[in-house]
Amino acid sequence: MDLSRWVAVAVWAGVIAMLVLLQGCMFFIIPGSVVAAISDSITGAEGRHCLARTAQVGDLMSDADDVSSASGVVR
Q: DSSP characters for the chain?
């Protein structure tokens, strides 16, 4: 056998060994938008501004140094 054949055999042996070691593991990639949507459905928030569905126009909300109304007017 030449060297390239041995390299190919070693690579396949490594792949098979990794598959055997990781046979019980499952990985899921969950996009951030999905996590945010699930969080919003649990907390009742509306997107990244965290307004509840019961919020009315003119309700005050505070975020650190800013106090603004639900209509977007800064007071």
A: --HHHHHHHHHHHHHHHHHHHTTT-------HHHHHHHHHHHH-EEGGGTEETT--TT-EEEETTEEEETTS-B-
Measured between its terminal Cα atoms, the distance across the chain in Å is 80
Q: Which one-letter amino acid corresponds to residue 25?
A: C
CB 53 within 8 A of CB 44: yes
- Identity at 65, one-letter amino acid code: D
Taking the complete model, does pTM exceed 0.90, yes or no? Answer: no
Task: Give the pLDDT confidence of 28-48 residue by residue, as tens digits.
Answer: 788 888 888 888 788 776 656
